[in-house]
Amino acid sequence: MSGRPDGERLVPVLAAAPAADGEFVEITDADVEQVVELWKTCELTRPWNDPYVDIADARAGDGSTILVARADGRVVATAMAGHDGHRGWLYYVAVAPELQSTGVGRAAVVAAEAWLVARGARKVQLMVRTANTDVLGFYGRLGYADQECTVLGRWIESDRGRVGLE
């Protein structure tokens, strides 16, 4: 497990975020099902990305984590953060629908950025699907801007574990 497995407080939620119990902490085993459900509710999952594998991978090393905020005993916000040795990356920033536009999303980003800065990140990047204009506006208000680059990718894993060009 990465970082602070005991759930030690990382960063206070901003005053503008009235929902959470007051802090973002690293995910625990007990949070996993609620996190996956939140990601599904927020339409962040895709059939080709198993959220359970993504959670396990993020928790496997010191270079990444998943931060959660709770309200009334349930997970209401998440942010996955990873440091690749050069830049910080944000993934799976999610807020329960009833708490969107309350400041909790901003607090999730701030918490993840603080986690990354503590690990040496000088720049934070993220990817947003082009059609998701509401989320593009959210990140724009937080100072994120198009970096004028194209993200390319290809799957290198086929048939579970076999790597190669086909």
From TrEMBL:
UniProt keyword Acyltransferase, yes or no: yes
Q: Which UniProt keywords apply?
A: Acyltransferase, Transferase
What Pfam families does the annotation carry? Acetyltransf_1
Q: Where is the N-acetyltransferase domain?
A: 22-166
Q: NCBIfam families under this entry?
A: PRK03624.1
PANTHER family this protein is in?
AMINOALKYLPHOSPHONATE N-ACETYLTRANSFERASE-RELATED-RELATED
Q: What is this protein called?
A: GNAT family acetyltransferase
**Originating species:** Promicromonospora umidemergens
